[in-house]
Amino acid sequence: MTDEQRKLEKLRRQLELQHKKLRHIFSIGRESVAILGSQKPEQLDAILQVIADETAELLDSEVASILLIDPKTDLMTIRAAAGISEDVIRKTKIKVGERISGWVAKHKKGLLVLDIEKNPFFVKRNQEKYYTKSLISAPIKINHTVFGVINVNNKHSRRSFEADDLDLLQALADHTALIIRNFDLYKELQELYMKTVQALTEAIDVKDHYTKKHSENVTEYASAIAREMGLSHKKREIVINAAKLHDIGKIGVHDYILTKTGKLTPEEWGEMKSHSLKGVKILEPLTFLSDVVEVIKHHHEHYDGSGYPDGQKGDEISVEAKIMSVADAYDAMTTKRAYAAAMTKEKAIEDLKRQSGKQFDPAVVRAFLKVLKRSKDNNL
Amino acid sequence: MTDEQRKLEKLRRQLELQHKKLRHIFSIGRESVAILGSQKPEQLDAILQVIADETAELLDSEVASILLIDPKTDLMTIRAAAGISEDVIRKTKIKVGERISGWVAKHKKGLLVLDIEKNPFFVKRNQEKYYTKSLISAPIKINHTVFGVINVNNKHSRRSFEADDLDLLQALADHTALIIRNFDLYKELQELYMKTVQALTEAIDVKDHYTKKHSENVTEYASAIAREMGLSHKKREIVINAAKLHDIGKIGVHDYILTKTGKLTPEEWGEMKSHSLKGVKILEPLTFLSDVVEVIKHHHEHYDGSGYPDGQKGDEISVEAKIMSVADAYDAMTTKRAYAAAMTKEKAIEDLKRQSGKQFDPAVVRAFLKVLKRSKDNNL
Predict the structure, then answer these.
(1) CA A201/CA A244 separation, integer angstroms
(2) Helices A3-35 and A163-207, interaxial angle, to 10°?
(3) Inter-chain contact A252–B206, Cβ cutoff 8 Å?
(4) ipTM of this model?
(5) Which residue in A144, A154, A150, A147 sits closest to A172, CA to CA?
(6) A340: which DSSP letter?
């Protein structure tokens, strides 16, 4: 082989390596975006696993690990790894500030260690192979927020890592940070949806403890009817939130009307009926509840068109609103109220049957009767 | 030059090019994560500009553009570009489904066009130089959600783009999609915070229109005092939200007590005083309001320790709560209420002065007097 052939050969190998790097970078990006679907917590683990595997490949190394910090305890655990035993993954707990990963997390700076045994943060454990002396570690961070670190060691070539390798690792860590932030924001948003509904039900409760208990019962009945009728997961969610909040407009109805034992005057009855539109007014700013608001608006429509506020009839009324209507009426009948004693279940069921096709959609009544029969058979 | 020298030269150039690609990928990642700080809308534009510039460099091209879709109109506009005049950037509006960018957005697939003039979607415009025939375009998407497209054309070498180039562009588009999703989620979260507060103030309003108007006045006064006292932006935000929601617990106080014209019995007074803790109960699920909840809890503490619910005194009471207390009292005094006619401003100011050091913190009273004097001087 001539000198030039050798040089040529070397360049070809380098070029091939660079190509490989680019391909891995592409596939990390592509796979992680592809997995980033409905953003369930399991999916973050799947993406981190792809990143750990590809990082090891990309840096021609045997071992790569992604450690994330639990902000409550400041402890880092391994969330994904390549080339590390399940046992070590499970046992590893590193405090921010301690050992190499902890140093990187604390100082928010990448680290290239040439001789690991000379590093003061290195803790040798018997079960690990440190056949190379060199490792790199990069913080996963956005600005001053550190989510964790990525570590790579045991280079296949048994050479030391170089500054270029650390640059590459930092690029992968930045990508990882973006993905984690995405999951965090998404999770926060989902939690806020739930908590907002919870705060609103608390507002119902401080106004009128009876209404909150009623809302809980209606939620149970409506949810069971929705399942019995085979509604989609999404529609069942709408029914559940609508049930929890259907009477929120009663915050705007005078206490003496809500608790009056005698017959309501036409004016009082008008105010009572205003609660569905008052509920709409309260919830309107919350666009994530817009489907729920529609159901609340129409939970007092009647199948024959005699209800309020819009006098909708038959299939003009959404199935969710028709379910609410039956569940609401049944709980009202079977519970003691200011103006009436509680009816027996049997009598309330008679009433539902009598109103089927008039106040209520027959299909919904049928589904509810099945639900009630099943819970009776099960002594519930 | 020998044959082998020529090959060597060629490989060196290719290697240099690959290195350059990697460096650009690193810097896109690094810069975009660095900019992704407080996530104001302007910052998205800054990141997109970095991506457009680096993309043009990376693909050795004169022109790169990032078009984003407005989901309301289905129109794409150029949000960042390299090598395109401001005029074209401003005027370009492309409907999803139309022209090349529209095709890519609609079909959610990258496109490598070898001869642009033969492409049925190509629309030639006089002001543009299409000296190369080839362009590439990649969708910016996560799963089925398309945010926009990245286009690159006018390769400096005047050669055609290749499949590899499109792969690289897609990787950049994936990175861009992650960043946009981040901004979207963040924006949604911020909006939900605001809307949740808005829904809760609507709940106050349907219960008691007077209380909502009162809350608006208190917000105005408290915000002015906070500014006068030089509170930080964050603390002023807390004061504003606390003022909007400080009486939300009145939802849980009987109407006849809120509107009673005579003196309250001790029992009624007890219920009236319960409103600050009832407010806490409603807002407790909303962790983003935890600082606000603290202020609401203590907005009826007195500087001398004679207030409720905890009888805090002096600097045990937060400055935000002390501000609320003064603003709340002043609006109560100067507004007509069920149990009392409105006081004149002068008389209310006398009262504030008299209670300074007793009910109120003297520093807060001084700040408010300055605010009131200034608005009087300005005839407000």
Answers:
(1) 7
(2) 0
(3) yes
(4) 0.81
(5) A150
(6) B
